[in-house]
Design goal:
Blueprint (H helix, E strand, L loop, with lengths): L7 E2 L7 E10 L3 E5 L3 E11 L5 E5 L13 E2 L4 E7 L5 E5 L5 E3 L2 E4 L8 E3 L5 E4 L2 E4 L9 E2 L7 E4 L2 E3 L6 E5 L6 E4 L4 E3 L1 E4 L6 E5 L6 E4 L5 E5 L12 E3 L6 E5 L2 E3 L6 E2 L3 E5 L3 E3 L1
Parallel strand pairs: 1-3, 2-4, 3-5, 4-7, 5-8, 6-9, 7-10, 8-11, 9-12, 10-13, 11-14, 12-15, 13-16, 14-17, 15-18, 16-19, 17-20, 18-21, 20-22, 21-23, 22-24, 23-25, 24-27, 25-28, 26-29
Length: 279
């Protein structure tokens, strides 16, 4: 469906909808609009072709408050792909009071595209299990947008790839302190900015890969967990604590600082479980 309508409009809010072997083309509407959970998606592709279109819109279709109280859990989906091919188009938008777990593979293919994943409502916990990538070079547009002033826990289990290392992969500018984790084997290419002026926690697990991680004025803590010497240069390019009293902790880790610009604005260093750092 092209135009302003939705490809699948769950007006009755039927729960446990199952989709299989489907291609949904949408213009400036939403490929799927529902406020209830999907049972399963198997080999489903949503193509967003219109300006301001959305692949998957998770909210109520009512006047007034559209926020749902249902948890979105797409971690078990097999082959849900959203391709955003239009200016200002977005992949997955949630407006919920419950947790968000995304397993969708989202590709923003336009240089003027919007975010791949936008967490709205008052969701506080986000788990990212999909392959999420963007070619957007729009100023201020991040691949993953958690700037709803509520997210306090974010874990990346798969990959978040910005158009370049200098583009925004994930950003929040407000809200509570965030416990952020890049899990084992997870990949982030692009800037991760936790600029909410809170006491954030950033944990990088062995075998994860990242670019630049930056905090602002809070007393932030950066944790390197089970890091091997062979992971130099792939775990991160820079860690920047910003203002405040910031701490870097190594836990069962070995790390050698090869560049003076790699670890910035850390006021305290902690070594746990026979960790070593070479300056």
């Amino acid at each position: 469906m092209l135009g302003s309508g939705n490809g699948i409009e769950n007006t009755a809010e039927i729960s446990q909808i199952k989709l299989s072997d489907a291609i949904i083309n949408v213009g400036s509407g939403a490929g799927i609009r529902t406020a209830t959970a999907l049972e399963q998606t198997d080999n489903v592709t949503i193509n967003v072709e219109g300006t301001n279109g959305t692949g998957f819109l998770f909210e109520k279709n009512i006047a007034g408050n559209k926020m749902t109280d249902v948890e979105l859990n797409l971690a078990g989906t097999d082959g849900l792909t959203i391709n955003v091919n239009s200016a200002s188009g977005q992949g997955l938008i949630t407006n919920s009071s419950a947790n968000v777990t995304s397993g969708a593979n989202i590709n923003v293919n336009q240089a003027t595209g919007g975010s791949a994943l936008v967490v709205g409502g008052i969701s506080s916990t986000v788990n990212q299990h999909g392959s999420v990538q963007s070619k957007s070079t729009e100023n201020g547009v991040s691949v993953v947008d958690i700037n709803n002033s509520q997210v306090s826990t974010f874990t990346n289990y798969e990959q978040i790839l910005a158009a370049s290392a200098t583009q925004l992969a994930l950003q929040t500018l407000s809200g509570p302190a965030v416990t952020f984790t890049n899990a084992a084997n997870a990949i982030i290419s692009g800037q991760v900015n936790l600029l909410n002026d809170q006491d954030n926690s950033i944990t990088l697990i062995s075998s994860s890969k990242g670019t630049d991680f930056k905090a602002s004025t809070g007393d932030d803590r950066f944790f390197l967990k089970d890091i091997k010497a062979s992971e130099q240069g792939t775990l991160f390019h820079t860690l920047n604590g910003g203002a405040g009293h910031d701490t870097l902790q190594l836990d069962n880790s070995v790390y050698r600082v090869l560049n003076t610009n790699t670890i910035l604005k850390m006021e305290q260093l902690e070594l746990k479980n026979t960790s070593t750092i070479t300056l």
